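Researcher: Next entry in the queue.
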Amino acid sequence: MIDNLKLNEILFLDIETVPICSSMEEMPESFQNHWEKKSAYFRTENESAADVFQKAGIYSEFGRIVCISVGYINNDFFRVKSFADDNEKKLLTDFSAMIYAWDKTGSKSLCGHNLKEFDVPYIARRMLVNGMSLPPAFNIAGKKPWEVKHLDTLELWKFGDYKHFTSLALLADLFEIPTPKDDIDGSQVYEVYYKEKDIERILRYCEKDVLCVANLLLRFLGKPIIPIEKMQSV
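Model: Structure for this entry, 234 residues:
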């Protein structure tokens, strides 16, 4: 499958998420109780549910999307477009319109790192929470695995081995894919969004991750990577 890919029909994607609000106390009491139960699975005995609330952004029931970046390969260039907004429904509506225009039937491929377990289900769930219909590319509930055309670089790297998670950052270093070291990482998105209130910085970080995913797939295919100087916003 990977040898017969049409690179011009792949849309690379990455999302950035944060907790639904800046602190646990801002949630309704019922959701605070739900978070108490959810966080009990991973917090230490010395930590409270409030102490680990920064991690709530990875769960679609307690988090929201603040940025989606997509990109595609066009000759030697990488074209990228981002949707970033404090209003999640507006962000998702704009993104959905773009996805509908790009793929009306769900026949093309999305590509991301851990896309199948994180990005796609997270976007689909948040669309439903916001009362939106799902574009064909995200309306995949109940489909057989071979019916879903999405590409996941984490899945490709595992070769059927499900024991370990390998980060995009590790694979970038392993395959000698240059990545800017002067930026944030995923663990800092909460601070940058709620304390620095710098959504543009999150957007830039998200776009660089999308290019990194594209370059990782190119490495898997034995092709030259695209330097960041050839990343262009559209």
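Model: Residues 199-220 form the longest helix (22 residues).
Researcher: Noted, moving on.
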